[in-house]
């Protein structure tokens, strides 16, 4: 769960070699027993009112709060822990089944006649954003992706898609610099002052607005972030951990560290896809795991809490179950988009190598277009763009959705409908 700004192995499970030495941390972590996963410990931190609130909050209230320290989380060092020791056999079995489905779905998506990887990435970014109550329908998201005005939520979701793209473009395991870059892309438009920078202020999850006292979870003090992120990256670089287990634990540890003032949830779920790609589970497409999490958001948050209490099994189980739900939903979407493609074949009266057909295939990735976008995509003149658009309008593939002469928009309603249906299926609660 993201915290709004506050005022103050591999698939075969093989062993690939020893970890490189890691420098000692500047700050202490709790030592863990070899066969256990460590719970958080806590430290007292003095509270000081944020300077911008001085003179706004009554002096008596300030004195009362500053007289009481709050308890901030201290994450354990995880780089050298053995996660499999702390997992029951049922979790390992669930992960194995999910891993098979991820790899199979990745192959299936790459073989489709439509740009399914882009479709899936957009659905994943929308689902991840929706976990944070940022909702946008498929049309508004497509309009925002054009750079047109479509509402703040749609712009935030479009930025999340860009951040996920950056995460998938990263080579190798997750690093500190990659995390900062993903966050920069995510937040640069909405909050440039914090984009790509670790926080230097306390953050917490829960209802208090003025101070962290009484919050549900208070993230580590900002002075610990560098050490915690370095430890996280060391765990992410291991090659002797099952890839899905590794992704679930890295995600839970990242959300526990909460290194940013805002955007932690969306950044943390983007990192999952970097890990799955690096582990070899996905090579072509994005498995929309966030759409699986949407079916039981409360369970997802409970699993994160259990992880902080020293039990990693619930978050691993949650990722395995969410993967299966996401793959099932993704296969339905793939079948629907393939069916649309087949229907268009009978309706589009143009050569298969024409600009009209190139545009038709592109509509699955960008289902709302304007003439400028089409001309740029086709590498054609403005007239060539209008010719391709008119061919698809005559075929009933495109309909004009904006009659503003200065910025006419056309949409592929068939594609938008199935993407909205995907989102509706993802929201159905798990029974």
UniProtKB/TrEMBL annotation:
One of its GO terms (molecular function) is ATP binding. Residues 174-321 form the Fido domain. ATP binds at residues 262-269. Pfam families: Fic. The active site is at residue 258. The keyword Nucleotide-binding applies. Residues 1-24 are annotated as: Disordered. Keywords: ATP-binding, Nucleotide-binding. The keyword Nucleotidyltransferase does not apply. PROSITE patterns: FIDO. PANTHER family: FIDO DOMAIN-CONTAINING PROTEIN, FIDO DOMAIN-CONTAINING PROTEIN DDB_G0283145. This is Fic family protein. It comes from Demequina capsici.
